[in-house]
Every structure is written in C-alpha cells, then in structure tokens.
Amino acid sequence: MSWTREQMLRRAAAEVQPGQIVNLGIGMPTEIANYIPPDLGVMLQSENGLLGMGPYPTDDEVDARLVNAGKETVTAVPGASLFDSAASFAMIRGGHVDLAILGGLEVACNGDLANWTVPGRLITGMGGAMDLAAGARRLVVLQSHAAKDGKPKLVSRLTLPATALGCVQRVITDLGIFDVGGDCFICVAKAEGVHRQTIVASTGAPVLFTTAASGG
C-alpha cells in the first residue's frame, strides 16, 4: 500500500497555512491549488507574473491569456495582481514567498535538492527552481519515493546536479512524510499500510521514525 496521487496532494495542501504567499512548482505541485480551502486567505504566486492564482478553470472559465509557469490555464482569485517576471523574481529573491512546494528528482538528508536536470537529457534551462529553493522561507518537496527503475530518490548525497543546497525542510512521497535530519531522514508520518521495512529498503539514507510513525 502507498498513498495515491490525490492523497499526496491533500497531504501537501495541509502544509499551507492561512494567509501565506505560496508558490507551487511545475508538475504535480500545481494540482495542490485544487485542495487549498478558499477561506484560508492564501495567495498563490506563479513566477511568470501572477499573485492570486486560483484552481484550474472549468470549461466555461478558460482564458488562454491566464496561465501558470507551466503554461497551463488557471483562474485568478479576487484581489489577484499581474506583473512582469522581473517583479516576480524580485518577490521570490526578496524572501516574500512564505512556502514553495516543488517537485524533486533527488533530495539528500541534509536538505540538498536536485530537480532540474538528468545528465544526458536535452533541457531548455533551470527555470525558477533555483530562485525558489534559495528564496522561499520554507521549502517542501513533493515527489515519488523511488524512480521508475526503483532507485531511491531520498538519498544520503545527491548524484544528480544540484538545484540548491541545504534548502529542503520536508519531503512528501507516496510512502510518507519525511523531514531532513542532517545525516538521516526523519519519518513523521507513514502512508497507511506501509511497513517501516519498506521505507528503509526504499530510501538511500538512514531513516529515523517518530513515535507517531513508529508502528508497522
């Protein structure tokens, strides 16, 4: 057993606190917008120049001019503002984003993040990941626990090119929720039905379990 995609998204949405300015990374993190209660007063920031991003639009709400950083159509909440990318990155680099939730390729137990490239693949650039990882006040990574070939994505040291160093506080995977501990990961919650042995075997670094996550 492991968490479904929807369960992972709901767990990630629970990281968002009332009144925060939050950036959701390209890929699965963008879907978190659909799980944030409107009454939290959260303002979602997109690095292409939108503060106040809402959930994905219904068919009759689609506006091709209103997109997120992944070029997907989105909505805007009341009070939203539009600006150029220079102002957007000044906001990010100035420490005005309370929380960023990004996808990951690897996270090391000291908080190092790799999420922008795999050697040998053709890419167009790093995008805003480096700025968000370094500039957000808190960084949570949402990713699968292991790659498709079974290789651990939670590791002792990065094997992929780094995005930023010592930046990640928490990782949410299909197997549970893990805080970085410097020389280990700390499992603070396990997915229902997942045994400790499964987590240990699937992680490329030592894992400690809190009392809340110690069963199984």
Q: Care to describe what's here?
A:
The chain has 216 residues and is of the alpha/beta class. It is 15% helix and 24% strand. The chain has four helices and 13 strands. It has a ten-stranded mixed β-sheet, with helices on both faces. Strands 7-6-9 form a three-stranded mixed β-sheet, with no helix packed on it. A hairpin with a 4-residue loop joins strand 6 and strand 7. It is globular.
Brief sketch in words of this structure:
This protein has four helices and 13 strands.
Q: How many individual domains?
A: 1
CATH class: Alpha Beta
> Quick one: overall form?
globular
- Structural class by SSE content: alpha/beta
Please report which band the strand proportion falls in: under 5%, 5-15%, 15-25%, 25-35%, 35-45% or over 45%. Answer: 15-25%
Which radius of gyration do the C-alpha atoms yield?
17 Å
CATH superfamily: Glutaconate Coenzyme A-transferase
Largest sheet: 10 strands, mixed
Report, as a whole number of angstroms, the end-to-end distance: 12 Å
Tell me the series of helices and strands, N- to C-terminal: HEEEEHEEEHEEEEEHE
| Mean pLDDT value | 93
Number of strands: 13
In DSSP terms (H or I, runs of 4 or more residues), the helix count works out at: 4
CATH-scheme architecture:
3-Layer(aba) Sandwich
What are the segments in which pLDDT stays under 50 over at least 5 consecutive residues? none
CATH topology: Glutaconate Coenzyme A-transferase
Largest sheet: spatial strand order: 4-3-2-1-5-8-10-11-12-13
The percentage helix is 10-25%
Q: Tell me which oligomeric state these chains represent.
A: single chain
